[in-house]
Amino acid sequence: MQESLNGMLGGKKRGGDGTGGKGGGGLGLFGIALAVLAAFWLYSAVYVLDEQEQAVVLRFGKYHETVGPGLNIHFPPIDRKFVENVTRERAYSKQGQMLTEDENIVEVPLTVQYKISNLKDFVLNVDQPEVSLQHATDSALRHVVGSTEMDQVLTEGRELLASEVRERLQRFLDTYRTGIVVTQVNVQNAQAPREVQEAFDDVIRAREDEQRERNQAEAYANGVIPEARGQAQRILEDANGYREEVVARAEGEAQRFGKLVVEYRKAPEVMRRRLYLETLQEVLSNSSKVLVATEGGQNNLLYLPLDKMLEGRPGGPAAGSSAPAVPGAADMGSQIINDLQQRDLRSRERR
């Protein structure tokens, strides 16, 4: 077999003296082994990193360098390399029961999204950085949930809860120098334990009913209060207008009375008669029946002004309209006034 191999590799076949053949065959095998080892070493020493990867190279167990994308070479076995994808976003999910500030137990599921920010710290500072991330997440979540009431955890406080967990978790990772940056923390729908879920659902429905009733009451108050204020303002305006009207009428009557006093002092008899006639005209104009009494109480005359009576009936001529008056109504009125004047004169003559 050695001769056949030497023949294939161009070596000399064994002759009469077999010493030279044996030496040449051993040298050929050694060269082959050396070439295979060199090829295997070169294959393991040269490596290519894509755009998303980085590699940390250790030489004699000590940090040597961090290399980026492209064709790279290291020297095993004195060098060791650790290749990681530093741009890929990774996720870690957790769900567990937590104790809130008001001593209630809730189940809080969350997802932590993270990526490697410093490959050197990720490889060298912590033995298992992702396990450290899980432990830090448990600590941060328990601390934040333990400082929050159950209502906030179950309802509108989840966004604030996720933000506080992210900040605290990032502080823990920076303290450990894990080389991990947390990009997002998502707190999903937190809920009570299954054993008491129905009771918690009843409480949530009652709270929603309370909020709905409160909103309806506020809407009703927002509609009633402005209306009441408007009515109150209208009443105040009407009262102010009525007050001004009464005051103005009273002032006008006072001025009129003052002027009448001056005229009365000049001609008392004339003013007395004028006031009497004006008062009588005002009274008669507002009455639909007039009884004219004669001397001795006999032959009393009942005067019915038909034009005034028709004005007050539906469909009758309105006041101030151009409808013709009842014939003889004006003469009858003049006669009544003359009778009254004559009666006044006779009474004065007697006195």
List the SSEs and their pairings.
Blueprint: H1 2-8, H2 19-45, E1 46-49, E2 53-59, E3 62-67, E4 70-73, E5 79-85, E6 90-99, E7 105-116, H3 119-124, H4 129-146, H5 150-154, H6 158-176, E8 180-187, H7 197-266, H8 268-285, E9 290-292, E10 301-303, H9 306-312, H10 329-350
Antiparallel strand pairs: 1-4, 2-3, 2-5, 6-7, 7-8, 9-10
Helix pairs in contact: 1-2, 4-6, 7-8
Q: Could you please describe the fold and organization of this structure?
A:
- The protein has helices at about 1-10, 20-45, 120-125, 130-145, 150-155, 160-175, 195-265, 270-285, 305-310, 330-350, and strands spanning about 45-50, 55-60, 60-65, 70-75, 80-85, 90-100, 105-115, 180-185, 290, 300-305.
- The protein has about 350 residues and is an alpha+beta fold.
- The chain has three domains: about 1-15 and about 25-85, no CATH class; about 90-190, Band 7 domain (Tetrahydropterin Synthase, Chain A, 2-Layer Sandwich), CATH 3.30.479; about 270-350, no CATH class.
- The strands form four sheets. A three-stranded antiparallel sheet has the order 3-2-5.
- Strand 6 and strand 7 form a beta hairpin.
- It is found in: Membrane.
- It is a single-pass membrane protein.
- Keywords: Hydrolase, Membrane, Protease, Transmembrane, Transmembrane helix.
